[in-house]
Amino acid sequence: xxxxxxxxxxxxSVAILLAGxxxxxxxxxxxxxxxxGPEAKAENPKLKSAVEAMASEAASAAPxxxxxxxxxxxxxxxxxxxxxxxSDTRHHVWxxxxxxxxxxxxxxxxxxxxxxxxxxxxxxxxxxxAARKSMKYNGKAMTxxxxxxxxxxxxxxxxxxxxxxxxxxxxxxxxxxxxxxALNIRKYLTADSFNVSAMFTDIDTDVLELxxxxxxxxxxxxxxxxxxxxxxxxxxxxxxKTGEDIYDYLDGRLFKPLGITPSWDKxxxxxxxxxxxxxxxxxxxxxxxxxxxxxxxxxxxLVPADYVKAATSDKIAHASHPSKDYGTTGYGYQIWTRSDGxxxxxxxxxxxxxxxxxxxxxxxxxTSATSVDFANVTLSDLYAIIEMFNGGxxxxxxxxxxxxxxxxxxxxx
Length: 413
What we know:
Elements: H1 2-19, H2 45-61, E1 65-72, E2 78-81, E3 91-92, H3 97-110, H4 120-123, H5 125-133, H6 144-152, H7 155-159, H8 169-176, H9 178-183, H10 185-188, H11 196-202, H12 207-213, H13 228-242, H14 246-258, E4 263-264, E5 266-267, E6 270-271, E7 277-279, H15 281-292, E8 296-297, E9 300-301, H16 305-311, E10 316-320, E11 328-331, E12 336-337, E13 344-348, E14 352-357, E15 362-368, H17 379-391, H18 399-411
Antiparallel strand pairs: 1-2, 1-15, 3-7, 4-7, 5-6, 8-9, 10-11, 11-12, 12-13, 13-14, 14-15
Helix pairs in contact: 2-18, 3-13, 5-12, 8-17, 12-13
């Protein structure tokens, strides 16, 4: 019997070694990550009650809220799901996608595939040259000053939302083409999203042409300007620098270790790096936990610590909801930040949030349904959506945040 046990132990060891010989790092069980190990056997009763109270009040105070999941170090997460959803429901998280795109850049920098100081023009020489000759946006050729600004644009400028545009190019183009979009709106609609690729086909363009063709009127790195197309450019940079689509690039490096199996929409032929991810609340929490631990998950470093620190710190000023306790003061690398370090957020349209609270050792994930009835959308609905996009951070739904700060934050004391 003793010999058999020795043989079995030997065979098990060989199996483990062979399993670890693949190209990816070993997948770490989410509950064996730092601070979530063997001691995390149960939920925090106080936090569980707070989540239940928030869910109960949401019916009247935040009727579009679909998911709440909160993790605090040392405990299992507590969650509630509303409006016909469950813990397995995958939500379109809109601009929360940007933060995942940012981590792909950080990983590529850590692997030596990319530098933050790399010039965007050097990565897209043909597209930039075409933009200099094009008059796609307003029928005017690019000025020498605009051309010089574009030539100075770096990867870091894109991450900071400081590309040199003075207005959000994605919403400006939505305004420009809104009649065409309105006439075809129904064919663009899916259950909770828009078929952006179909839109581009109808207006005969793509993200690269729209982004580079919009006027670069400011010096890059000096002016915050929220721009979802710039995030798509970052995703395309990953493809150009690594030879892999951003989804494939992150699959073994981030998604599998965190237990994430998302879907990711396209923007034409490119991945929608600014808005395309669909996630569960649990997947959102795990991503927030990885950020909380500075890029670590268990014994593995998924994203370089210095990059995560920079990404979650103020790099450029931009206040979001400044009068509220959940307000932010600036922007890091595709993440909303607060100068006192008490919080940083990944935010998406219609009320999608990953909120990391380092001082409270906690992560909050919130999801909400869209505020538009896609089955019966009207022209005024379309214009309202355009205005929401144009609002950037101020276009985010805040009713769920108000409830979270009423119920969840006190329970994290």
